[in-house]
Design a protein that fits this description.
Layout (H helix, E strand, L loop, with lengths): L2 E4 L21 E5 L2 H5 L5 H20 L3 E5 L10 H12 L3 E5 L4 H9 L8 E4 L8 H8 L7 H12 L3 E2 L2 E2 L30 H13 L16 H14 L1 H4 L19 H6 L4 H13 L5 H25 L18 H4 L5 H13 L4 H15 L3 H11 L5 H12 L16 H7 L20 H12 L1 H4 L6 H9 L2 H16 L3
Parallel strand pairs: 1-2, 1-4, 2-3, 4-5
Antiparallel strand pairs: 6-7
Helix pairs in contact: 2-7, 6-12, 11-12, 12-17, 14-15, 15-19, 16-17, 19-22
The structure holds flavin-adenine dinucleotide, ligand DLZ and iron/sulfur cluster (SF4).
Length: about 500
């Protein structure tokens, strides 16, 4: 036998670099469901079901393309439970000339892969992951000589590089972004699309049974599994998004509504992150929808920016700062995450909605993650590494390279402002403006202090007051601090006392 090609659970792409030049007659592809990966955090049940099912369907796709696949199921009798053990077993059985693997997306696994050569004499080739638009090298070149690493400037370079929505050297429409048009609250009577759903087939059915027995103590519901698990599913889901939701994506990107889990979001991050969709192809489809007049520019540009801007930038930051990024704790906070992050049982309507749908569907959209659960964790002074572990556990799209900078950097400001120019914090007012949650909440968003008042209101000032030595010099927070200082002392004390009382109730 010639080469043994190892494909990991988020490398489910036919154009993955490890398959380039593969010989279906002589090479063997190795894929393995391993307990170590399924339990390094106690992933949401639907996330494990999705990944295992997508892996098994990808193995079928490879076989249909003529490849020989050695696939270890979790239930295989001699599965020793780690990537390395499965490799050693395969090498013993097959005696390959060479092992080929595309570099893992996470530092933790990359370190593991790098250590294999010490245990094995067969040469191991670790290839670059070419499925991103910017290479790691391009990102570190972009960083050189810059004082601030703001996404916007990186994004503009990638727009130029990809030529997406460009008119020569200028952005189509004359502006690089249309954020000012993209902050509308949604009304309940608007037509609400929903993502394409899929019935579990025999393969997924078998996995769902496995999850019920082997991962019963993991977070989340496994019933009503509706995710796509094949490339065809993912492509159909994305086309459905373009046809039914993209036009409104821009305007209502930041909106939240009770009972509406998805609004006009694409719900494709899970497919994209495991390799069932290709980022550049997706952006070209969105550009085409704009050029043929089906969607407005603010939506097309807004969506493309998420993919070629935020997603690529976040990956760049991860590799720039690993290892060690996870240990950042700028505010030096230690509070454990309250139990209701796992149960969803809280009187705060915004939190119970966001956590409830996280539990049922392993999904919440960006503003729920950033301005509800993330905002609350930051305001109460939760330990950022616990917050990071929560986000990594609960979302179907969560892989450390994308989750960690979003949590440690964007949401918790634990890196002290490498990624964001100020902390994403708000009082209840922002949530009230962007959602209808408050009208159904036990707390009163208009009340500033006292038992019935929205907790976000006093926590907001408590956060600013207790961190003023670290934040007061931040020019973007100047006006807020001036408002705080103008308040009379009794009022300030009322806020602080109210927040203290609330914090004392948290378990
Ligand atoms: P849409 O709103 O439809 O956006 C389209 C696509 O843009 C997404 O599918 C995603 O691929 C990309 N995108 C948008 N924003 C970001 C971003 N900030 N970073 C990277 N890509 C982005 N995204 C993940 O893919 N995995 C994570 O583990 C993850 N963890 C997050 C944790 C926190 C605290 C926060 C604030 C954000 C996190 N995000 C994460 C980013 C974002 O919330 C999700 O990508 C998005 O909600 C996925 O839903 P969607 O597919 O409907 O996205
Ligand atoms: C997330 C995940 C899970 C739950 N299980 C597996 C698995 O059993 N086998 C596998 O190859 N990949 C799995 N994954 C995805 C990996 O964690 C992902 O490929 C690595 O994080 C890459 O660094
Ligand atoms: Fe959330 Fe406060 Fe509104 Fe209740 S009143 S939903 S706690 S923002």
């Amino acid at each position: 036998m010639r080469n043994l090609i190892y494909i990991l659970g988020d490398q489910l792409s036919l154009n993955i670099s490890s398959l380039e030049g593969a010989d279906p007659l002589q090479d063997v592809i190795l894929m393995a469901e391993v307990m170590e990966e399924a339990t390094y955090v106690k992933h949401h049940k639907k996330k494990i079901a999705f990944i295992f099912s997508a892996m098994r369907h990808f193995a079928e796709e490879l076989r249909e393309n003529g490849y020989i696949v050695r696939y270890t199921k979790l239930s295989t009798a001699d599965n020793n439970g780690t990537f390395a053990d499965e490799l050693l077993r395969a090498v013993d059985d097959l005696n390959p000339e060479k092992i080929i693997i595309t570099e893992p997306s996470e530092y933790r696994v990359l370190e593991d892969v790098r250590s294999w050569q010490k245990q094995i004499s067969t040469p191991i080739a670790i290839l670059e992951d070419t499925r991103f638009i910017a290479t790691k090298q391009e990102f570190s070149d972009w960083v050189k000589g810059r004082k601030a690493l703001r996404m916007e400037y990186f994004y503009r370079d990638i727009r130029r590089k990809t030529n997406l929505l460009m008119d020569g050297k200028k952005p189509i429409g004359g502006a690089w972004n249309y954020d000012s048009e993209n902050r509308k609250p949604a009304a309940d009577d608007l037509f609400m699309p929903s993502p394409l759903t899929f019935q579990p087939d025999r393969i997924t059915g078998e996995i769902l049974e496995l999850i019920e027995t082997r991962f019963a103590d993991h977070f989340g519901d496994v019933d009503n599994f509706w995710f796509g698990v094949t490339r065809q599913h993912a492509e159909a889901a994305f086309k459905h998004f373009i046809a039914s939701a993209l036009a409104n994506f821009g305007a209502y990107q930041d909106a939240m509504l009770t009972g509406q889990k998805y609004l006009y979001h694409s719900v494709i991050s899970l497919y994209l992150n495991v390799g069932l969709l290709d980022p550049l192809t997706m952006c070209k489809m969105v550009e085409e929808a704009y050029l043929n007049g089906s969607v407005p520019l603010n939506s097309a540009e807004g969506f493309i920016r998420q993919i070629i801007g935020w997603r690529e930038y976040i990956r760049g930051i991860y590799w720039l700062k690993m290892p060690g990024y996870e240990a950042n704790n700028f505010f030096d906070t230690k509070r454990p995450l309250p139990d209701f992050y796992w149960s969803g049982e809280t009187d705060m309507r915004c939190m119970s909605e966001a956590i409830g749908q996280t539990k049922s569907d392993a999904y919440a959209h960006h503003i729920q993650r950033l301005m509800v659960t993330g905002n609350f964790a930051l305001l109460i002074g939760a330990n950022p590494s616990e917050v990071h572990e929560w986000y990594l556990t609960v979302y179907a799209d969560a892989f450390e390279w994308v989750e960690m900078p979003n949590t440690i950097g964007m949401s918790q400001f634990a890196d002290g402002g490498l990624l964001g120019s100020k902390p994403y914090i708000s009082s209840g007012n922002y949530i009230s403006k962007m959602s209808n949650y408050c009208s159904e909440c036990k707390y009163n968003v208009k009340e500033k202090t006292g038992e019935g008042a929205c907790p976000f209101n006093s926590l907001y000032w408590h956060f600013l007051d207790r961190n003023s030595h670290k934040l007061k010099g931040n020019p973007r927070l100047g006006p807020v601090y001036r408002t705080w200082e103008r308040m009379n002392e009794d009022k300030q004390q009322e806020y602080l006392k109210s927040a203290e009382n609330f914090l004392a109730t948290l378990t």
